[in-house]
What does this fold into?
Amino acid sequence: MDTKDRQHLKRFWGTDWFLGLAAGVLVLIASQLALIEGFERSAYDLGVRLASRTPGNDVVVVAIDQPSIRELGSLPWARDRHADLLSFLQEAGAKVVGYDLAWTDTKLNPNLESVNELIQFFSSSNLARRAPREIRNLNNAFAKLRNRSVLAADKGLARELEKLDKLYSGSSLRRRLPHEVKHMNELLRRAARTLNMDSNLTDRIQQSGNVVLKMPVTLGGADATAAPLPKFVLRDALLVTGENLPKSRDTQPPVESLGRHAWGIGFSLTASDSPRDGRAIPLIVQHGDHLLPAFSLVVATRFLDAVGRVTIIEETGIGIGDRIIATDEKLRLLSFYYGKQSDRSPFEQYSFKDVVKGNIPAERFRNKLVLVGTVTSNSSTRYATPYNPALPNVLTLAHNVASLLNNHSLSVPAWAKPIEWSSFLIVVLFLSIVLPRLRTGVGMVATLILLNILVDTHFLLLMNKGLWVQLVTPALLLILGQALLIVKRLSLVRGRVQEASDESAENTRMLGLAFQGQGQLDMAFEKFRKCPLNDSLMDVLCNLAADYERKRQYSKAGTVYEYMAKHNPDYKDIEKRKERARQMDETGLLHQSGPSKTTDTILLDVDGVQKPMLGRYQVDSIIGRGAMGVIYKGRDPKIN
It folds into this structure.
């Protein structure tokens, strides 16, 4: 490639239209690598915070907080405590109770095993198995003997049997033993139920009939194998399959005794990568041939009396009864998150300990959807939301459920992608074609107008219509392209200014050399001082200092050396030259007055001192003095 081709290629890379195109490619690659996702999320969060919506008063949170833990003990609690809460909420008239706790294993009292052994021994003993039957047989035998005619003929036998009958009838064997055996059996089984904490909670869940439990689910890849699930988990499952839906890899169903009596069971994502992104919550997870509903979705359907009426509406969302909940293409809920209402939490929230103690009026829970869960700092699952980077799961559920109940969820319309790509292309064309033809000021005004259109469209659609169209990427491209173009133009201006400065410095340098050649050393030094001090000028200044020395102006020569030392104190032997000029200036070279001395000579005791010049002649010594002047001995360096 010759020099001409290189220059042509350099001009091509530096054109304004190529700069705009390069910015577009750079931003496109960054967006595909999810490097701009953070900006889109920030804009989403800002739009949600600016929107004005209220969650209503249907959702109430019972929080397992630090005061409850300090008073009731560390977690996990005995399940009897939760049974007590369910008993209170049942009496208070709560419509739905959603428990955000994973009861995936059986909880047994250590003493239960001993009681079960007693029950087993008692149930298999003769006292419990044979004694009641033998007593009944004995009663029947006595009854038959009383009715036989043979007893009437034998009075003595009759009297003996009558005594035996009275003795047996009044004994504890006939009157109390059967009842005590039955009572003993009841006591043992009651003790077993008391020690079996799951049994108490199961009874309470069954009696309440409005409890929804959660099932932790871990998501897997497209090839995730689905383990079979219990039948009670599949009651709310949809017998269809979907495309591009998240698939479950591992599920942890509730204890069967609890799950069978629960009103519903919904999945909840595990805390493997908490805090999760709370802006897009999966409402459906595929598990084999079934679609499992989320915990928030199951709770909402119960509250809306839409059990069994959940449908998937293609490219639209999820139907709950007669209402349609907008989602994205993966059936994820773009939940709305509510800010504080008059400086209060958006949801009524009560401490667990206050509720079970009866400190909260029961009417506050009547016909409400109650969510129970942990809100402590070490709670397992947390979500990043527009208001809180680590919101506890139960509070995230409250926002999700309120979005479902009020149909406040955001949506990504089908025309969002075409609008986003069209906006991106328009910005690229603007940067490549329009902006390079505009002056800098006009171009900045045009950029601000286009940027304002993109930003306003993004926020107005999000705040007023609940539509999320991601226009932050083209807006960032617009800002980047404008910035690159300004930087390029400023660099060109700076380059031109530098060229002009260099040209001016060279002219000043040439003028200084001209003055130096004419012997006007002061004028030459003044011009040289206006030039940038670099290595090439150092050589020129060194020659100027030598000229000063030849003219016996050692003070000015020292000034030049000092000026040079500011740029490079290690230049040649500049320190020695400065010292020599100082000594020569202090000692003096030629005597202008005093008695004549035929031995007067030029002081040459300083190493490297150049002999002074008088015109074209180099002075060696003083020959004599007179009233009118001084006679010097010299030579012409050009001839000799």
